[in-house]
Amino acid sequence: MSATPSTPSTPSTPSTPSTPSTPATSAMSASPLQLVLRNAVCLLPWGKAQVDIGICHGKIAALGQLGGVPAVEVFNAQGLHILPGLMDSHVHWREPGLEHKEDMASGSAQAAIGGVTSVFEMPNTSPPTTNLELLSQKCSLAQNRCWVDYAFFLGGSAENLLSLPQWEKAPGCAGIKLFLGSSTGSLLLHEERLLAQLLQKARRRIACHCEEESRLVERKALAQAGKPETHPLWRDEASAFLSTQKLLALAKPYGARVHILHVSTEEELALLQKARAFATAEITPQHLLLSAPECYSRLGTWAQINPPLRAPRHAEALWKALHMGLFDTLATDHAPHSLEEKARPYPQSPSGMPGLATLLPLMLNQVAQGKLSLEQLVELTAHGPARVFGTRLKGRLALGYEADLVLVDLQKKQTVNTSQTRCAWSAFEGLCLQGWPVATLLRGKWVAREGSLVGKPEGLPIEFDRV
Ligand code: DOR
Ligand code: ZN
Predict the structure, then answer these.
(1) In what order do the strands lie in the sheet with 71-76?
(2) Across 307-318, average pLDDT
(3) Ligand closest to the CA atom of residue 211
(4) Which of 99, 179, 301, 465 is the most buried (most CB within 10 A)?
(5) Cα 134 → chain centroid
(6) Is ligand 1 within 6 A of the CB of residue 231?
(7) Which ligand 1 atom lies nearest to the CA of residue 350?
(8) C-alpha 146 to ligand 1 mean position (Å)
(9) What does the pLDDT look like over 182-193, one tens digit per residue?
C-alpha cells in the first residue's frame, strides 16, 4: 500500500467488475474534495465495483472515475478492497469500573485498527448502565478518548423497567439490553410479567441475551470444578432454546422488536425463522468457528463464554442459517478478561473472550477459504447493523453517507498477535490468517494505517433514526 501525492492514471484490473460511467464530480458540495481513494474495488450496496471515492466534510461526496478531480490528498488504493467500516453492535468495553480488563481508549483503539468504526457498548460495567445519569457519564468518559464512533446500551432490570421506554431515546443510547439469564455482572430480567411490561412499551430494538435463568440455577451443580468442558452441560441447549422461545412468545403480541444475541444452538433456528416479522438475530465469529470438545481441550477456560461453545452440529447449522439469510448481524461480543482472571480454575474463571482485533481478519480468512462472500460479510457487519438499529448515515458505501471506511488486503497473510491489547490474549492467537485490514477512516479521517493508530481519538456518539 502506498500513498500517492498526485493523481495516478487508472489501471484496469482484469478480475474486477465493470466500472459505472459516473461523472467525475463532487455531487455534494462545491468545495474541493479532501481525499480521493483511487483504484480500489469498493463494496457498494449492490456489490463490487471499481470506483474512486471522493470525501468532503467527512462524507462520501463522489463515487466514480475521479482522476483529474482536484483533491487535497489522493491515495492510490490499487490492489485493495474498500468496505464500509464495520459496525460491531455487541462490545463490552468495561469502563467504568473494570478498566484492568479494557477501557474505552484501549478498546476503541483495537476497533480502529481492526476496521471497526462503530461500536455499541454493553451495560454490564461497574456500576452497570441503568439510568440516564450513568449513560451520560459514559458519554463524557468517551469524549476525546474514543478512536471510533460509539453508542451505549441501557441495561434492563426490575428496578428501572418502567423508565426505560423514555430513556431509550436519549442521545448516545443504542437502546436497551436485557440479560434473561445471569452472566458477567448482576444485570438480570427474567420474570415473564416484567418482561411483558417492558416489551409492550419499548419502541426501539431490544438486544437480548437469552439463557433461561431458572434452568441455569437448577443445573449449576453440573459445572464441575476444574472442568471447563462441563460449561455447555450446565448452560445447555435447552437453556438457550427455552429462553429464546419465551422471549419471542412474549414479544409477538406487541410486535416488540427484539434482537437475539449470540445465537448458539441449532434448535433456536426454527424459532427465529418463524419470528422474522419482529425479531432479528446475531451470530458471533466464535460460535461459527470454534466447537466442543476440541475448544475446551485446547483452550480450557479461554474458551469459556456465555452462551457456551457447543458441539460441531451447532456450528454447522449456524453456518447454514447464515447462508440462508437468517442472521442480521455478525458481532464480536468482545468480552475481555485479564489473563489472571481467565487462569482461575473453572468455574471461578469468568466467561467471555475478546474479539475486536480479530473480527475482520477471521472473517476475511473465511472469505479466502470460500466459506463466505465479501458481500455477505458487508451485509452482516454494516448494512445489517445499520438496518436493525436504525443508525443515521452509517454502514453504507453510498453518496452522502459518512466516510467510515476500511481498506483491506485480501492477499495479506499475518499471524494473530494480541500482545499489544490490554488483555493480551485471544482464542485465535497464533493463527495465520489471510485477509487483513490495512487502513481505517472514520468520517473521512485516517485513524489507523498498517496496524497502528494515526491522528487523534475523535469518535462521536452515533445518531439514530427517531422512533
Ligand atoms: O461470555 C460472556 N461474557 N457472555 C456475556 O453475556 C457477558 C460477557 C462479559 O461481559 O464478560
Ligand atoms: Zn455480551
Answers:
(1) 2-3, 71-76, 33-38, 52-56, 59-64
(2) 98
(3) 1
(4) 179
(5) 23
(6) no
(7) 11
(8) 22
(9) 999 999 999 999
Active site residues: 333
CA 219 to chain CA mean position, Å: 31
304 lines ligand 1 (CB under 6 A): no
Task: Please check the confidence at residue 11 and state whether its pLDDT lies above 50.
Answer: no
- In sequence order, the β-bridge partners of residue 176 are 154, 206
The H or E element spanning position 442 is: strand 432-442
Q: Does the predicted TM-score (pTM) go above 0.85? A: yes
What pLDDT does residue 8 have? 34
- Taking the C-alpha atoms of residue 19 and residue 441, their distance in angstroms, rounded to an integer, is 23
- Residue 307 preceded by cis peptide, ω within 30: yes
Question: Hunting for cell 478478561 — which residue is that?
Answer: 337
Residue 398: other Cβ atoms inside 10 A: 13
Contacts of 155 (CB under 8 A, 6+ apart): 122, 123, 124, 128, 129, 130, 176, 177, 178, 179, 187
* Long-range contacts of the stretch 336-341 (C-beta < 8 A, 24+): 336/92, 336/94, 336/101, 336/102, 336/107, 336/421, 336/422, 336/423, 337/101, 337/423, 338/100, 338/101, 338/423, 339/423, 339/424, 339/425, 341/101
Per-position DSSP letters for 246-314, written without gaps between them: HHHHHHGGGT--EEE-S---SHHHHHHHHTTTTEEEEE-HHHHH--TTHHHHHHGGGG--SSPP--HHH
pLDDT digits (tens, 9 = 90+) for 198-248: 999 999 999 999 999 999 999 999 999 999 999 999 999 999 999 999 999
DSSP state of 339: H
Contact of 447 with 148, CB cutoff 8 Å? yes
CA of 305 from ligand 1 middle (Å) equals 6
Q: Which residue has the cell 482536484?
A: 70
C-alpha cell at 338: 485479564
Q: At what angle do helices 192-201 and 237-251 cross, to 10 degrees?
A: 50
User: In the structure grid, which three cell numbers stand for residue 278, read together?
Assistant: 419482529
* Burial of 331 per CB tally in 10 Å (0-12, 13-18, 19+): buried
Q: Specify the residue for cell string 487508472.
A: 10
Give me the sign of the Cα torsion angle 327, 161, 118, 61: positive
pLDDT tens digits for range 382-411: 999 999 999 999 999 999 999 999 999 999
For the chain, the maximum distance between any two Cα atoms, rounded to a whole number of angstroms, is 70
CA-proximal residue: ligand 1, atom 3 (nearest)? 352
Q: Which of 183, 231, 299, 334 to mutate to test the pocket of ligand 1 (most atoms within 8 A of CB)?
A: 183
